Amino acid sequence: MNIDDRHSLLSRRNFTKSIACMAGVRITSLSGKERKSQRLLLGFDNFSIRAFGWKAPRLIEYAAKHKVDALLFSDLDVYETHDIGYLKEIRQEVEKQKIILQAGTGGICPTSKSFKGKYGNAEEHLRLLIKVAEAVGSSVARCYLGSSKDRKTEGGIRVHMASTIETLKKVRTQAIDAGVRIAVENHAGDMHSKELVELIEKAGPDFVGATIDTGNSTWTLEDPVETFRNLSPYAVCSGIRDSMVWPSEKGVKVQWTAMGEGCVDMGTLFKEWSERCPETPVQIETISGFAREFPYLEKDFWPPYSTIRADDYSRFLALARKGKTLSPFSAPDDADKKKAQRDYQLSELEKSFSYCRKKLGMGRKKA
């Protein structure tokens, strides 16, 4: 190993250590045996059980009941108010329950088709998120750019990446002063993981990291294992589910599933997770029951995805060869539709808890 290689290795180690510190993790010196025996932190995103419309206190109660280590509030509507006093009460409750709370919101890209302006302009929205994160004791502020629709606009995804980077840079001082790392997600087919890496590096990895979403990566024609490998040096948050991918008449179909019910190589993924970012919580975000087709055999499909490299795409095709057709979820005709949706979402999440604990050895609390 030459001097440049050693310097690069040390830089990566220091960078990973700094990310863990920003995520609120205390770095200690562990032996190889201790590192191997340390189970991954298991949690969930409140979006998994969105049909209930629960607010923060009820979600914390549910998280405590299921003895999870972490909880992601991925929207700002989960709070009754954004007053500091109330937010500090939420912080006290999660600390009492020994739950790592991570705060989040939706899109913060002003040029995205997904941007709504509910909390003011993009900068104001992001500043509110940082304020909330700091008050509830979260060292993470999860957000995203937009969706796959942004890839199809004039100038493609890079136009929106540039405006997101500009917005992020405006709040750098506030984020650093608050001890909060902004964790941008690969969301709904907006950015390929390599594009997200580029965004983080250009915005500033001293205050911007990644939220890894293994389901969303299939919407940019990626194998989630490769997504993880690309984003793991920056990972402070996550949204995790399995996916089934199978060949279709026009290309491939993708259906998100509970953990263990798709074709993603979960064993490899979480073995590497334990090695690369062992203190980043695995936040389950189940969004199951429907399939989306990616008609890559049609000639007009490719322009928005022209940045995808052949080797990345080949791994995705290999994943599709492992998959099988799934049927969508639909409630029985005579069922209460709202109750059926709630029951289905609970079942998907709790099956995932069980799989992660029993098959993947996750969770540090005794369930």
Account of the 3D structure:
The chain is α/β, with parallel strands linked by helices and 367 residues long. It has a domain at 39-240 and 263-286 and 343-358: Divalent-metal-dependent TIM barrel enzymes (TIM Barrel), CATH 3.20.20.150. It has helices at 3-22, 32-37, 56-65, 84-96, 122-136, 157-170, 172-178, 193-203, 224-231, 266-276, 310-322, 337-358, and strands at 42-45, 70-73, 100-107, 140-144, 181-185, 208-213, 235-239, 242-247, 252-257, 282-284, 291-294. The strands form two sheets. It has an eight-stranded parallel β-sheet. Strands 8-9-11 form a three-stranded antiparallel β-sheet. It is globular.
- Write down the oligomeric state: single chain
CATH T-level topology of the domain at 39-240 and 263-286 and 343-358: TIM Barrel
Q: What name goes with the CATH superfamily of the domain at 39-240 and 263-286 and 343-358?
A: Divalent-metal-dependent TIM barrel enzymes
Q: Would you state the CATH class of the domain at 39-240 and 263-286 and 343-358?
A: Alpha Beta
Strand order of the largest sheet: 7-6-5-4-3-2-1-10
Overall outline: globular
Architecture (CATH level 2) name of the domain at 39-240 and 263-286 and 343-358: Alpha-Beta Barrel
**Can you tell me the residue ranges where pLDDT is under 50 for at least 5 consecutive residues?**
1-34
Strand residue content? 15-25%
The secondary-structure class comes to: alpha/beta
Overall average residue pLDDT? 91
Number of helices: 12
Q: What about the largest sheet? A: 8 strands, parallel
Question: How many extended strands?
Answer: 11
One letter per element, helices H and strands E, the order comes to HHEHEHEHEHHEHEHEEEHEEHH
Gyration radius from CA atoms, angstroms: 20 Å
Which percent bin holds the helix content? 40-55%
Distance between the termini: 45 Å
